[in-house]
Design a protein that fits this description.
163 residues, mainly alpha
């Protein structure tokens, strides 16, 4: 049973962090491939971002549920499990912020700018706000990735120092 719990926990973390690592690569290739049509590239990347967030939310909930059970099964110490769960809750909060607050606000700015954000002047208020939100979105994703790496470190440490 311990092996099953650990395997499912690792898989949930691998899926989420793997997607977080791979997403910028996919976004860059998409924009490079469709460089004359950044609006289409942005639409594709936006759709992929929704998939990334959905994957993160499901993976995060699975990881939290598994971590909540590990002390009772003697897999990890309570302190380690709680620390990892706290980080996962923060990661979920940031993912939800990006999915339900930042991304819709960016979409509103894009629509208000006439549909194609890169076709309006750089000093247009909608474009400026869009760019600000885009930078915030990137920072949120970096934060999720860094916290995820810390969760992996905690879980790995728990494996080696477990009583």
């Amino acid at each position: 049973m311990k092996t099953l719990f650990r395997t499912l926990l690792y898989l949930s973390l691998i899926v989420w962090l793997g997607a977080e690592i791979f997403f910028p690569v996919v976004a860059a290739v998409t924009f490079q491939t469709l460089s004359p049509d950044t609006h289409t590239a942005g639409t594709i990347v936006g759709a992929l971002l929704h998939i990334l967030h959905g994957t993160g939310i499901v993976s995060g909930l699975v990881a939290i549920a598994l971590l909540a059970l590990t002390p009772a099964w003697g897999i990890y110490r309570s302190r380690v499990a709680i620390a990892a769960m706290a980080l996962l809750v923060l990661m979920l909060g940031l993912t939800a912020l990006s999915q339900y607050v930042i991304t819709p606000a960016m979409e509103r700015d894009r629509i208000a700018a006439g549909g194609a954000i890169d076709r309006v002047p750089a000093d247009d208020p909608n474009r400026m706000h869009f760019n600000k939100l885009h930078n915030r979105s990137e920072s949120v994703e970096i934060g999720v990735l860094l916290m995820g790496i810390l969760v992996v470190v905690l879980v790995a440490r728990a494996e080696t120092t477990r009583a």
